[in-house]
Amino acid sequence: MDLVAGVRKEGSRGGRDAFKWEDVKDDAQRENYLGHSLMAPVGRWQKNKDLGWYAKGDTSQAAVDAVNARAEEIRRIKEAEQDALSEALGFKVEPRLRDHQVAGPKEVEKAIKEAAEGEEEGGKGVGFGVYAGSVVRGEE
């Protein structure tokens, strides 16, 4: 007697390939299926309706601008909290330049002086300084 050779039970016992939401629409126990109201809608009020409206995000320009403005506000609040904490701990806090503030002539002069202090006379960059390599001369 070989038990593995043949199918012991006849018919379909269900499964992923045998399931169809269209069959759920006609089933008397359709309420027992999770997601039946979205995947197998039945009734006049559900025809030509967007049943998943709540899961879609708002992609209008006003909504995108509002999200960006909120993110910018949160960034500024975090910067202010960080500055307040640093000041409370005794660290030196540099004033931050905000978007609506324009650098005045004093700030520009200060930045130029700070940049000039670190540089040596002459210049830095490609072409300055002594070449320490060997020169290969071509055949003449």
Our Rg estimate from Cα atoms comes to 37 Å
Task: Provide the residue-averaged pLDDT.
Answer: 79
Biggest sheet layout: none
β-strand percent reads: under 5%
**What is the tally of beta strands?**
0
Q: Number of helical runs?
A: 4
Question: Share of helix among residues?
Answer: 25-40%
| Separation, N- and C-terminal Cα atoms | 98 Å
Shape: elongated
Structural class assignment:
mainly alpha
Which residue ranges are poorly predicted, with pLDDT under 50 across at least 5 consecutive positions?
none
Secondary-structure element series: HHHH
Describe the structure.
- With 140 residues, the protein is mainly α.
- The protein contains four helices and no strands.
- The protein is elongated.
